[in-house]
Amino acid sequence: MNELTTTAYCGLFCETCSVYIYSQTDEGALETIAAKFGMTKEQMRCNGCRSDKLSVYCEKCSFTACASDKGILNCEDCADFPCEKLKEFQKQMPHRAELFESAECRKSLGIQKWKEKITADYSCEKCGNVNSPYFIKCAQCGNVPSSPFFDRHSAEIKKHLKID
Description:
Radius of gyration: 15 Å
Structural class: mainly alpha
Shape: globular
Number of strands: 0
Distance between the termini: 38 Å
Largest sheet: none
Order of helices and strands: HHHHHHHH
Strand content: under 5%
Number of helices: 8
């Protein structure tokens, strides 16, 4: 896999997305999440933002088109970073809470070091499994919290998931 395949233009890391994780590891869970959103498993499937198979949520990403039009690799390479569109995107979901910091980190460290840092931030401190920010407990060992990211943003994530 190309190191950019799971590197979203906006600053997110696809390998921490529930849809990406299920697409790679758990067909049953992918089917369940697809049904929850009224879609087929194949509509929901995603192999990363820069792959040949994107979920319906990522197929028409405006950041992909914008970066391509401007000839830049990532949003943080733009003179307008963070633009109003990216600011609005960041506010919509709790997993985007650190979007700007992530993008700035990627710019300063480079893709590989950023991936190492972000992977650690979304990994279970007990077993090392990479978890989605929406996994309260580790998908592999059941440790709570699932990751340092979840620990920092648990209140917002729980509110979004409508759980106590």
